[in-house]
Amino acid sequence: MNVLMILGSRDPGGRTAQAAAALARGLQDAGARTETVFLTGSRIERCRQCNPNGWGACRNEGRCVVEDDFHRLVESIRVCDLVVFATPVYFGDLSETMKAFLDRLRRVTRHDETRRAIEGKPAVGICVAGGGGGGAPTCAVALEKVLITCGFDLLDVIPARRQNLDLKIRLLEATGRWLVERAQGPAQGLRPCP
Q1: 19 and 174 Cβ atoms separated by less than 8 Å
Q2: Contact 127, 7 (CB under 8 A)
Q3: Fewer beta carbons below 10 Å: N end or C end of the chain?
Q4: 141-173 pLDDT tens trace
Q5: Which is nearest to 23 in space by CA: 83, 103, 98?
Q6: How many CB atoms lie within 10 A of CB 173?
Q7: Is pTM beyond 0.85 here?
């Protein structure tokens, strides 16, 4: 099982990275291979809303005209078995880098060919709030909405806050093991690895 982990955090030692690493440990313990991409280390521009009606090649051709790392990440999503989207919570919402990436992803998935390549792809979300932590649930709802709009088979969105991160780390490790076990089991809804 090949898992792509896309992080909208800029701190490789921060809470979001710790949560994603916990899920990765569980996945790896059960035999999966993981690749982690920090969006802040990639060049991801925001959507340009190319033509006067706010669309462009994304809708007509299933591709974005912006030349950056977006295309490489979309291809990685197409070929992996599971995608994890982990974001810190800012103002009760996705990080700006995660939002920029997902805004463009949901646009290209409006085209049938791109949607078919992603539709039904299992995905998991992680939203980690610092501060008071109250924004994690609203961020989880926002992430759920965009991932379903893109066509992913959303298995879970796990909100966490700094006050319960120790507990959620244990939960994420167990979730990683469960995801692999589920993929290997018969008719459990998650496609087995090729």
Answers
A1: no
A2: no
A3: C
A4: 999 999 999 999 999 999 999 999 999 999 999
A5: 83
A6: 18
A7: yes
